[in-house]
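STRUCTURE:
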């Protein structure tokens, strides 16, 4: 496929239009124009080559609080949280905020958690799989990252349900599905969530344990580069990043694979195929639909100029189905050539800190389902994923014994 050098003027689409049928819209426009415009003025880059390039291009930077301002949030707990988070900062500020966490999330240390995640996934299935079905999202997919991150952080088991509910409320701000009417509830949840993290840090500073938070607090105090509020917000960021996206990804991959009986059978016969199956699910229907960036100077793409100060939405959803990068992009293939680092986790200095942990949780969740003594099916249920950018929403999915 050859893209034209000069493109027609990109259309302006509403949130509702984009959320209603994102894959179809991206496929319809991608060949003839490099980006779409959204009603809030953001530019959605559609092509794999452009998304890969601009995630690290020095003419762009990680978006900070511009998105919130565009949506009318100019103060309050949500703004306080995101403005002080490593997730929404750049340069030396980002490095300073991220550094105390980096060593705690090494691939080697995360791999040591794999046996525990495997046992957890198996226990959840044994507990919740009934004749009338398993609530895949709430009884299985939501519990794996929540309980795992709680164990890593040293959070008491009795607090898991409480902090998980808070996280899923706060994380809505990273989606495109909330409205102005949702803001008060999100603000209230964020305030409680921040207070909870403050209490965790204060407790570990007073009585250190052999756990992640104690190590983190020691690193923060030793290096002395974070303010007290910044230290809290980085812990909150880790908890936030370690739950919602993985929950959605587990539901999505299960729905996709159970919907293709031939592939499910191949996986049951050969567990070495779990890794490429997880990667292909992440490509075909990613839980995170985009990577946000801000243009720090004018950018020309295919004869169009994106002005300095514009918000860029690097659409991983579109890029991962770009036929110029992935031949027959709508076909699920276990034999597909895969890049070493999956694009869904981002790239550059903002590459997902918890990638290794997420991969383990996705692989072990799938392994537990494949190990189930009963054959599983979706029955009359179907996978429903919504959203075109940010963290996408996934509906409950009932998985039943066949």
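SEQUENCE:
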């Amino acid at each position: 496929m050859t893209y034209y050098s000069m493109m027609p003027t990109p259309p302006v689409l509403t949130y509702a239009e984009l959320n209603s049928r994102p894959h179809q819209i991206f496929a319809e426009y991608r060949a003839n124009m490099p980006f779409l415009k959204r009603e809030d003025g953001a530019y959605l880059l559609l092509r794999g080559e452009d998304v890969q390039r601009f995630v690290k291009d020095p003419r762009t930077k990680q978006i900070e609080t511009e998105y919130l301002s565009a949506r009318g949030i100019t103060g309050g707990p949500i703004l306080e949280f995101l403005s002080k988070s490593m997730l929404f900062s750049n340069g030396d500020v980002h490095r300073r905020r991220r550094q105390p966490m980096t060593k705690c999330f090494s691939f080697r240390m995360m791999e040591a958690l794999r046996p525990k995640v495997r046992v957890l996934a198996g226990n959840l299935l044994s507990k919740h799989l009934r004749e009338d079905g398993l609530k895949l999202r709430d009884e299985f997919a939501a519990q794996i990252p929540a309980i795992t991150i709680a164990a890593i952080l040293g959070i008491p088991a009795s607090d898991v349900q409480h902090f998980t509910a808070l996280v899923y409320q706060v994380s809505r701000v990273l989606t495109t599905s909330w409205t102005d009417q949702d803001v008060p509830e999100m603000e209230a949840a964020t305030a409680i969530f921040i207070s909870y993290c403050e209490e965790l840090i204060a407790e570990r500073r007073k009585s250190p344990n052999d756990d992640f938070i104690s190590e983190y607090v020691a690193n923060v105090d030793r290096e002395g580069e974070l303010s007290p509020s910044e230290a809290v917000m980085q812990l909150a960021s880790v908890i936030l990043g370690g739950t919602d996206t993985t929950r959605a990804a587990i539901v999505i991959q299960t729905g996709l694979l159970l919907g293709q009986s031939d592939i499910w059978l191949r996986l049951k016969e050969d567990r070495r195929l779990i890794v490429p199956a997880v990667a292909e699910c992440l490509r075909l229907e990613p839980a995170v639909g985009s990577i946000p960036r801000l243009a720090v100077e004018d950018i020309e793409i295919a004869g169009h100029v994106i002005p300095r100060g514009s918000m860029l939405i690097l659409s991983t959803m579109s890029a991962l189905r770009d036929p110029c990068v992935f031949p027959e992009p709508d076909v699920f293939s276990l034999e597909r050539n895969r890049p070493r680092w999956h694009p869904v986790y981002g790239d550059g200095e903002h590459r997902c800190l918890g990638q290794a942990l997420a991969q383990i949780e996705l692989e072990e969740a799938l392994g537990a389902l494949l190990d189930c003594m009963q054959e599983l099916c979706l029955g009359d249920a179907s996978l429903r994923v919504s959203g075109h950018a940010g963290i996408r929403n996934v509906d409950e999915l009932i998985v039943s014994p066949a």
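REMARK: The chain has a mean pLDDT of 90.
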